[in-house]
Design goal:
Layout: H1 9-14, H2 25-34, H3 44-62, E1 65-67, E2 73-75, H4 80-88, H5 91-102, E3 130-131, H6 132-157, H7 168-173, H8 192-196, E4 205-208, H9 209-212, E5 227-228, H10 235-244, H11 248-254, E6 255-259, E7 264-271, E8 274-281, E9 283-286, H12 296-304, H13 309-317, E10 328-329, H14 336-348, H15 359-367, E11 370-375, H16 382-388, E12 397-402, E13 412-413, E14 416-417, E15 422-429, E16 435-440, H17 464-470, E17 479-483, H18 484-490, E18 493-498, E19 506-516, E20 523-530, E21 534-542, E22 555-565, E23 574-577, E24 587-595, E25 598-610, H19 617-627, H20 632-645, H21 649-702, H22 717-732, H23 767-789, E26 795-796, E27 799-800, H24 804-824, E28 838-842, E29 845-849, H25 890-913, E30 924-934, E31 940-945, E32 948-949
Antiparallel strand pairs: 1-2, 3-19, 4-9, 5-10, 6-7, 7-8, 11-18, 12-15, 12-18, 13-14, 15-16, 16-17, 19-30, 20-25, 20-31, 21-24, 21-30, 22-23, 22-25, 26-27, 28-29, 31-32
């Protein structure tokens, strides 16, 4: 057919087939014009068919997507059934299906990254209440013993200590970078180009302390102004060291044992509620390469042509603190800053793990304290805050001050640098009543980031008397004084770290694994029993992801909790709630100065966020196993992951035991209900069989003397008539049958096959009577139940005791039974029937023969002993096992129906895959710990799961 004239676009759109989605007419018109679809005048139908085929071909050839008005791509689905289902189903059903696909019913978590047989085991968290000093003493004592063994070994073989698990020297020479870079990152490129470059982007050499420093000292001169940051963005750690340097004893407390001659140092840090030790050697990274390696500095010195060029090179570029690549002291011979940074980096696995952080978190790891973010505008009584907390700086508290973080500030406010942390060194009340606070800028520069307002260096407020009273000298270092009122107005955030220096502080802790739904809510997780009045500090924290960076997954969490009294557990009657750490999300806390004895409930809420751009743990492990030649880094990070998540292993075992008990109880209850239902059904069937048998016998006796008519082919129609007439009469009068519910029958059960007979004269099939029989059985079952309870049966819609919804379900069951009967059993005559029961005429009437396998007791328990055992977890037994002969024909039918249901559901999923393409379901699990600090030695901390105390669940801890 010749295409001679272009048809208007609107007409084509009006006749457009169902699989085209014209959301935007302009774009659809453009699409149709590009597909070159022309129609002959007067033949729109054929032309439409031609356009249909051409457009379909173009769509398949070009792209399976089209664009909507917003520019987003939309897949054009040609599956009509799926589209019709979406149109016909209610909106709530669609929403429910989306949530079903989006969220898993049972959340799961990766607990062991490395196989458990190679993992050293989880930390031994003691669940009982213990003194804080004892916990530190245990870790320090273990560290000292290990250092002592290393020293004895090295002296025995006359060798300096070389750390075999964290050797900086060989790691750099082999260009592996495991001590520098994390698992899935390469912050420091150890390529030949980078190592030969003159820029300080990567370390170039590794030397021991005695090779770098001329007269090395260790912790002989501890000052806050002596700390200098290196080529790593760990200013948060350096700021914490500046604050800790105000208490020299606290700095020395971190290093419990060392030997400078052998070159071994042992430090302790606080990690996830427990003190841990880190033992290192004395090797440090340098900025400049060794003399034997090619470098620009060597070439310049060689051009001078002086004697002793090598010594000059080492003196200039590889001697003193100035030659170190990472953190250092201003004193050219002091070594405590680079060594404590190295020990902290080893504890985390590498140096790059220290990049980025918060000062409060660093102080917690160095002191074992508890840090809380305080907004200065939220403090109710500033005078009370001064007397209780600020005036006790360096005694019970450490403070950091900052501003501009929440305002995205990048400038200065009267000399104060925004988005930068300052350390509170001292708080003093002058004789004249002025309250002053001394702060330090960790940069160490006396000309940058210094307060320029009242009480700044050189301001008019300073007098000789005040200067002598405070002992302040202008321009001495990066410290300055500011009034307390200006501090509260110029700084928006205070990081308060509580120090537990008193020897009578006790701590009790628990670790649990919490499923985090997409919409979180408060739930009771812990109970605290206080026996005496005491100050109380409650800390809820999650695992420090810095220790296993690279295996943290896609989810991040925030914690919230409320403290309730057991006497008033209402949601609105809490005693206190956690302070929101908006910048630090590792932990939240509540500090109560004094709490009365009693039982308190901790309601916890964990909210989660998902980063789809991040890799899941499974993807990281798969990639690392395929790409990495060396497996040491994966093993190191994997062990740290197992160590952290092993804290909640005991809780996971108890929860698994609790859920197993609940599942067993639920299954037992389901089995009991099913046994009762099946027993009532069999009892009703026995009543119906006895009644029918009695009627058949009476009718047989009445017709016993009548001669039988001739039946062709040797068939006996009289027996079929008797059965059919009796059954028809039974169905019509079934509603009036009465039976004694207390009488126990010892007769035999008559199966359905005994009634499924056909007569050539009446041409009545067994399947036509199946539904009526089932309705009669329902009536009898109801009647039996009513007699047992002493209540008359109710009548709804003409059927006793059944609601319309129940009748619909039962009628659907009858239709399925009718369909299955027609598929499995062919219609047989009485003479050809192979049922369990047959009729024969003898002397005084009709007698029944039956199999003994169908005998049934009245007891609902005895009948099910053979089907259920104590360890059987079946919820829904098969009806074919009760009251029916087992046959091979029934099982293929059930399997076929099940296969059809599965295939229908899978086809629906395939049809909906085009429109419901989404990522993996929401599966967030957070490991949460709680620590309760008090001066009550008898305090008890319990864990709660679904209102049940897990301490009452007995289970063995898995190895």
């Amino acid at each position: 057919m010749a295409l001679t004239e272009r048809v208007p676009i609107q007409k084509v759109m009006d006749e457009m087939p169902f699989w085209v989605v014209p959301k935007d007419q302009n774009k659809t018109a453009s699409y149709l014009s590009q597909s070159c679809c022309y129609f002959a005048k007067g033949s729109s139908t054929n032309g439409l068919a031609t356009m249909h085929s051409h457009t379909r071909t173009d769509t398949d050839a070009m792209s399976p997507h089209t664009s909507d008005a917003r520019g987003d791509t939309k897949r054009i689905s040609s599956h009509r059934g799926k589209n019709e289902r979406d149109k016909n189903e209610p909106p709530q059903t669609s929403v429910d299906r989306i949530w079903t696909r989006f969220s898993k019913r049972e959340f799961s978590q990766v607990v062991n990254v490395i196989p458990s047989d190679s993992d050293p085991g989880a930390l031994n968290i003691c669940p009982s209440n213990k003194l804080l000093h004892d916990d530190y003493a245990r870790a320090a004592s273990k560290c000292r013993r290990k250092v002592e063994k290393i020293v004895n070994e090295c002296k025995r073989v006359n060798m300096r200590y070389r750390d075999p698990t964290w050797d900086l020297d060989w790691d750099l020479k082999l260009e592996k970078g495991d001590c520098l870079n994390g698992l899935c990152e390469e912050k420091y490129d150890l390529s030949a180009v980078s190592l030969s470059s003159s820029e300080d982007k990567v370390p170039k050499a590794v030397k021991r302390v005695h090779e770098i420093f001329e007269q090395p000292t260790f912790m002989e001169r501890i000052q806050g102004g002596d700390i200098t940051q290196g080529n790593l963005s760990d200013c948060w750690l350096m700021t914490g060291l500046v604050a800790l340097a105000n208490i020299p004893a606290a700095v020395k407390r971190t290093c419990v044992s060392y030997n400078t001659t052998v070159g071994v140092y042992g430090f302790v840090f606080y990690r996830d509620g427990e003190w841990m030790y880190s033992i290192i050697d004395d090797k440090l990274y340098l900025k400049s390469p060794c003399w034997d390696s090619p470098s620009t500095q060597r070439d310049l010195l060689e051009q001078v042509g002086q004697d002793g060029t090598e010594k000059l090179y080492r003196k200039t570029y590889q001697t003193g603190s100035k030659s170190l690549f990472f953190a250092r002291c201003r004193d050219q011979n002091e070594t405590w800053v680079p060594l404590i940074e190295k020990a902290y980096a080893k504890a985390h696995g590498d140096y790059s793990s220290l990049a980025g952080g918060w000062t409060g978190e660093g102080l917690e790891d160095l002191t074992g304290g508890v840090t809380t973010e305080l907004a200065t505008s939220d403090i109710l009584d500033t005078d009370l805050f001064w007397h209780r907390e600020m005036s006790k700086v360096n005694q019970d508290f450490l403070f950091g001050a900052s501003t501009g973080y929440l305002e995205n500030g990048k400038g200065e406010r009267d000399g104060i640098v925004e988005a930068h942390a300052y350390i509170v060194l001292e708080a003093r009340s002058l004789k004249g009543g002025q309250r002053l606070v001394k702060l330090r800028n960790p940069w160490g520069d006396a000309r940058r980031g210094i307060w320029e307002g009242p009480w700044s260096d050189g301001s008019k407020e300073w007098t000789r008397e005040v200067q002598d009273e405070l002992g302040h000298k202008f321009g001495a270092d990066s410290s300055f004084w500011i009034s307390y009122d200006d501090l509260m107005s110029k700084f928006s955030l205070l990081d308060r770290t509580r120090l537990f220096q008193d020897p009578d502080w006790w701590c009790c802790q628990r670790w649990v694994s919490v499923d985090v739904p997409w919409k979180a809510s408060f739930q009771e997780r812990f109970r605290i029993k206080v026996t005496q009045s005491s100050p109380l500090v409650v800390v809820v924290s999650q695992l420090d992801r810095r220790y296993f960076r690279g295996l943290h997954g896609q989810y991040s969490f925030r914690l919230h909790f409320r403290l309730h009294s057991q006497d008033s557990p209402d949601a609105d009657s809490f005693i206190a709630r956690s302070h929101g750490n908006y910048l630090m999300n590792r932990s939240v806390s509540v500090d109560i100065p004094d709490i009365s004895p009693g039982t308190y409930l901790v309601h916890l809420k964990v909210t989660g966020e998902r980063d789809h751009s991040a890799k899941s743990i499974e993807e990281v492990i798969r990639q690392e196993c395929l790409e990495r030649v060396e497996k040491d880094k994966l093993i190191q990070v994997g062990h740290a992951y197992n160590l952290a998540h092993g804290k909640a292993s005991l809780h996971l075992n108890k929860v698994a035991k609790l859920r197993q008990d609940k599942s067993s109880e639920k299954a037992s209850e389901a089995r009991r209900r099913e046994r009762r239902r099946q027993w009532a059904k069999r009892r009703a069937r026995r009543y119906a069989t006895k009644k029918q048998k009695k009627k058949n016998l009476e009718k047989g006796r009445r017709r016993g003397l009548e001669p039988e008519p001739a039946v062709p082919n040797g068939q006996r129609s009289g027996v079929g008539e008797v059965g059919l007439e009796g059954r028809s009469h039974f169905i019509q009068t079934g509603g009036a049958i009465e039976a004694d519910s207390n009488a126990k029958s010892s007769g035999s059960t008559v199966p359905n096959e005994g009634l499924e007979m056909s007569s050539n004269s009446d041409k009545v099939s067994v399947e036509d009577l199946h539904s009526s029989q089932h309705i009669a059985l329902q009536k009898l079952s109801l009647q039996c139940a009513s007699e047992k309870e002493g209540k008359p049966p109710s009548v709804v819609d003409g059927v006793a005791g059944r609601s319309p919804s129940q009748l619909r379900r039962k009628w659907a069951w009858s239709r399925r039974q009718e369909a299955s009967s027609s598929q499995i059993r062919p219609r047989q005559s009485v003479g050809e029937s192979h049922g369990a029961r047959s009729l024969y005429r003898a002397g005084d009437g009709v007698q029944f023969l039956h199999d003994a396998v169908e005998d049934s007791s009245d007891s609902p328990v005895d009948d099910w002993e053979a089907l259920y055992s104590s360890d059987d977890m079946t919820h829904e037994p098969r009806d074919d096992d009760i009251g029916k002969p087992s046959g091979a024909a029934a099982h293929p039918r059930q399997r076929g129906q099940r296969w059809r249901r599965l295939s229908e559901s899978s086809s629906d999923d395939l049809c909906g895959s085009d429109e419901e393409e989404s990522s993996d379901p929401w599966n967030a699990v957070c490991t949460v710990g709680i620590r309760v600090y008090s001066k009550d030695r008898d305090l008890v901390l319990l864990t709660v799961e679904d209102g049940i105390l897990l301490e009452e669940v007995r289970t063995k801890r898995s190895v």
